[in-house]
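Q: For a teaching session next week I want to show students how multiple molecules come together into a single three-dimensional assembly. I've collected the sequence lines for a complex. Could you give me the predicted C-alpha cells for the whole thing so I can convert them for display?
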Amino acid sequence: MSYKLENLFMRISLKLFALGIILIGFSAHVNAQVSSTAAASATARIVKPIAIEKNVDMSFGNIEASASLGTVVLEPSSANSRTRTGGATLPAVTGIVTTAKFTVTGEALLTYNITLPASANLSDGTHTMTLDHFTSTPSSTGLLSADPGTQIVYVGATLNVGASQATGSYAGTFNVTVNYN
Amino acid sequence: MVSQKMKKPVLLNAALIVAFLLSFGQAFAQEYATATVSARIIIPLTATEASQLNFGRFFPGNQGGTIVVSPSGTVMTTSTVVPDASPRNPGSFFVSGEPDATFSIALPTGPATLTNSDASKTIVVDDWVTIPENGQSGIRLDGGTQTIMVGATLKVGSLDENPKGTYSGTYQITFAYN
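A: Of course. Below is the structure for the complete assembly, covering every listed component.
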C-alpha cells in the first residue's frame, strides 16, 4: 500500500514534469515566433537595391588663366556647356568639355537622395585648384523611372582658377552618393 | 525559474536578427560612384611688336599713288611715286602661347590714318595682309611661338596733298586663341 502510494506520487510528479517541459517549450516557441515576425516586417529586402554608375567623367577643357581670380562653371545638363567669370577665359579651342553623367538604378518609382561633395581638389602634381558648388540635375531628390527603375543624373561644379594659375593638366576625383528616401 | 532562463537567449536571438537586418538594409540603401575631373590651364596668348611697319622715304610726284609693302618684304609702287634707297619693311609680331594651340588674327577692318608732324596732313594705310594667313583652322603655335608678318598699302596724295615730312600713326591687330 505504501508502495502503491509512492508509485502514484512518482507518476503524478513525472506527469507534472512532462507538462512543465511542454509548457516551457511552447512558451519559448511563441516567443521566437513573435520576435522574428516583427523583424521580418522591418526588412529592406523587398526593395531592389539602389546603385549608381558613372558614365562620363567631368572635364572643364582648356582654360586661360590671368593675373586675377576666376571661375569656370559646368552646367549639370547634357549640353556640356561652361561659363566663366573673373580672370578665367575660355579659348575657342575648348579641349574636351563634359559634364559628369551617372546612371542610378533601383526600385521603379522610388525617390532617392543625391549627395554631392562640398568640394574636391584638382592637382597637376604640384599646384592645386579647388572645385565646389556642385550641382546636379535632378537636384537633391531623384525619381527612378517606371520599370526598369533608372534615372540619369548630370553633375556640374564650379572650378576656382587661381590668379596666375600655373599652366598644366589638372586632375582629381569626387564621389556622388545616392540613397533611398 | 526555468522559463525565465529559456526566455533570455530567445530575446538575444531576436536582437541579433534585427541588427542583422538593419545592417543588411543599410548596405543596399546607399551607393556611390566616383568620377574623375580634369581641367587644363593653358598659357595665355601674348603678342609683342618686333618691328614697326615702315614704308620708308619716297617722293610722291605730282599725282601721288601707292606703296605696297608685302608681308614678305617685297615693295611695289604705283603711279608717280618714286621710292628712294631707305629701308622699308613689313610689321612683325612675336606671338607666344600654348604649344600647338591655334589662334586667329583680327586685322584692322578699315584704313589707319598717318598724320604729319603738325597734324595738318594725312595719309591712309589699308589692305592689310599677313603671313601666315588665318586659314580655315587658324595659325598653329608650333612649339608655342609664331611670328606674324604684316603688310599693307600706303595711299599717298600729290605733293600738294602730302607735303614732305614724317607721317606716323597706329593700327590695331588682335590675336586670339581659336
